[in-house]
Amino acid sequence: MEYRVKWQMSFFADSPKEAAEKALKVQRNPNSIATYFTVESHQAIYNVDLLHDEIVKKVEKSDCKHEWLEEDDMTLACAKCGSLKLF
Ligand SMILES: [Zn+2]
User: Fold this and answer.
1) What's the rounded mean pLDDT across residues 46-72?
2) What is the 72 CA–ligand 1 centroid distance (Å)?
3) Is residue 13 part of a domain?
4) Quick check: is 38 in a domain?
5) How far apart are CA 14 and CA 60, in angstroms?
6) Domain count of the fold of the chain
7) CA–centroid distance, residue 4 to ligand 1 (Å)
């Protein structure tokens, strides 16, 4: 099974590079509490909290009442499950 793992965090920085460097520092810190991931398979999306050993299924893609948002000029992405469609 292939999974897509997303890790997201906000940083204040003076440049995109500085923001990325701050993110890298947090990721490499073994004591970091930023252990919350969104994990997506072809069927479903899960919220995984490694710190609290908790896995919550967020949405089964087939059950999703898609909320389509424009991803780019040719693609729509569902805000809830991450499904993509061309238009
Ligand atoms: Zn959806």
Assistant:
1) 89
2) 17
3) yes
4) yes
5) 39
6) 1
7) 16
Establish if 85 belongs to a structural domain: no
Q: Are 78 and 65 in contact (CB under 8 A)?
A: no
Average pLDDT of the residues in 34-57: 91
Distances 19 to 1, 62, 63 between C-alpha atoms, Å: 32, 36, 36
Give residue 34 CA to ligand 1 midpoint distance, Å: 26
Q: What percent of the chain has pLDDT over 90?
A: 56
How does the average pLDDT of the chain come out, rounded? 91
Residue span of the structural domain in which 25 resides? 4-62
Whole-number pLDDT of residue 2: 94
50 Cα to the center of ligand 1, angstroms: 25
CB atoms within 10 A of CB 78: 19
Cut 0.85: pTM above it:
no
Question: What is the 42 CA–ligand 1 centroid distance (Å)?
Answer: 12
Local confidence band at 79 (pLDDT 50, 70, 90 cut-offs): confident
Cα(75) to centroid(ligand 1), Å:
14
Distance 10 CA to ligand 1 centre (A): 24
